[in-house]
Write a structure and sequence with these properties.
By secondary structure, this protein is an alpha+beta fold. Helices cover 30% and strands 27% of the residues. This is DUF3298 domain-containing protein.
């Protein structure tokens, strides 16, 4: 079994309280991933023993994660993380997911989608209406989009918000991760001073 988890690790984070908080957040995430990897190693060993005993083919287990900064300003940072796992012998395909976090660079506090709007419910309604008008999502009902829409599945760029749906949620797995941009200008009347 192999694992490679890469999280943001800021040099001299202890000299800046906000970055220190952000580094602590990712250190905890990394520790949780490693604990899970330890458990998974036991499953991999068991799977290996069973496949060898039955003459089957063992597929090595593996997990990887990485990250990128999608936006960094004086006030905030937006981090996009990727996750890949091939950890079940005989599975139809590996798992690919995306996660993201936004942080206030004055405090290190994690920002939620609601943090960016003066009226979060009105913003969520407009976001869903806008997403339902996107070509790739036009065949899906508002109920389906609403039930699969996760407030934490977004990140920021210089131009706007990017909302995403994990594979095999609103579209078949083969469609992959679906991402949709909404410019800040389309939500301008609802934006909080955070942006």
């Amino acid at each position: 079994m192999s694992v490679k988890y890469v999280f943001p690790d800021v040099e001299n984070a202890d000299q800046n309280p906000a970055w220190s908080e952000i580094s602590s957040y990712y250190a905890a995430e990394g520790a949780a991933y490693m604990a899970t990897a330890g458990e998974l190693a036991g499953y991999a060993a068991d799977d290996y023993a069973v496949t060898k005993a039955t003459g089957g083919e063992f597929l090595p287990f593996g997990e990887e994660s990485g990250y990128r900064f999608s936006l960094e300003t004086e006030d905030l940072v937006s981090v996009v993380r990727s996750y890949y796992a091939n950890s079940v012998t005989g599975a139809a395909h590996p798992a690919n997911y995306q996660f993201s976090e936004q942080f206030d660079l004055a405090t290190g506090e994690r920002l939620t989608l609601s943090s960016f709007f003066t009226d979060p419910e009105a913003a969520r309604t407009r976001i869903l209406e806008t997403l339902s008008g996107k070509d790739a999502l036009s065949g899906y009902s508002a109920d389906t989009l609403s039930s699969e829409f996760k407030d934490e599945y977004f990140y920021l760029t210089e131009d706007g918000f990017v909302f995403y749906f994990q594979p095999d949620t609103v579209a078949p797995y083969a469609a992959g991760l679906l991402e949709f941009s909404i410019p800040y200008s389309e939500l301008e009347d609802l934006l909080s001073p955070t942006l």
